[in-house]
Amino acid sequence: MATRRFTGDLPPEQPAPRSAAAPQTPQPRLAQTPPPAQRPAPATAPSARSGAHLPRTLTQVLAEANDRIISGDLADYVPLSTGFDPLDGFIGGGLRKTELILLGGAQGIGKTICTLQIARNIAMRPDQYAFYLSYEHTETHLMHRLLCMESLNPPEIDLSRGIKLRDLYQIIVAERAKGFMGKESGTPGTLQAILKDNPKTAPALARMARYADRMIMVKASPAVTTLKAIKEMTARLCDATGGNVTVFIDYLQKIAVYPERPRDENDKVTIIVEGLKDIALSLDVPVFSIVAADREGLKSKRIHLFHLRGSSALDYESDIAIIMNNKYHILSKDHAAFNPYAAKQFRDWVVFTVEKNRAGRAMQDMEFQLHGQHFAFDPRGQKVQQQLIDDKVIES
Q: Does 276 fall in a domain?
């Protein structure tokens, strides 16, 4: 599956070549004037960067909102579902424009899996685009993860059809080896041909092709991909897609800060989180970012919002903060009903706690089963029924 590579500037004007397996959906023309159906709103709209920080009277704001309603633009009133239930219910239906959403947790808990799956769920909508910046993985590796995820076909989660990363690599290498050894006539197959012809990978490829044109990925650099670069790329994408973009960042602490010279990591994180909130507000897009835990958080039995690496600005600037913990590790061992043998079944379950929620109730616990080898969560979760450890248990 071909992917675009973004650097400091956006790609040239030629659109990416369309593969035979790709769906017939329009590519966002990043360096050209958008087609009439996708042109951004007039300059009076909040999504117009030129007027984002200019003063306006309440009458102007009301008139602008009225114009958008008349034109059928309900983006400010309809959230984007993450596809994770009951998470959507707890956060008001999903992600909203201008909001900064933070996702924290320990290493290996499944933060990237969750974020990429939410990005995929949003890109599945024919009118929405996901812009995924990864400081940790290449675009090709993310594509391989998506293929493994799609083999389970969320939310069905058919484990009998699931493929692992090891299986995917073996299929590709084996088929290419046949071509090089002359066991097959003609030229060696392309990657898409190999995946399309194999019964295990063909369904996953077909599902991924449904949103491939709307999933935009970039291997970000902790040295050069600054807040300014992220904002410029996002602005160009907003122009090309009519503002229908959700930004995903993996992960916050790796964003380059330049030309600022932060005094320490707390100062750096403050600059970054304030910059991400500015992107969300000024470009009128949701921004979803992974945040790493600090050393104390990694040592604790249960990670909380205050354990995330950096300053208190993470709490102040975010609209929603979700913390992930392994369920087995945070089950209350002091509870009378605790059964150590039954508890082992929860090792593959992750508790999502909404620790901050500007628009609703906070400290809500829900759980989702992780299929780590397939890089997927079962998005059909539930409220946690068992007793979890709290601060009193942690201190005892």
A: yes
**CATH at residue 327:** 3.40.50.300
Q: Which CA distances in Å does 228 have to 70, 141, 261, 271, 319?
A: 34, 26, 15, 12, 22
* 11: in domain: no
Q: Which two tokens stand for residue 170?
A: 């073996």
pLDDT in tens, 224-266: 999 999 999 999 999 999 999 999 999 999 999 988 888 888 9
| Residue 127 maps to a domain | yes
Classify residue 366: in a domain, yes or no.
yes
pLDDT tens-digit readout, 125-137: 999 999 999 999 9
Quote the domain boundaries for residue 371: 86-139+221-395
Domain count, the chain: 1
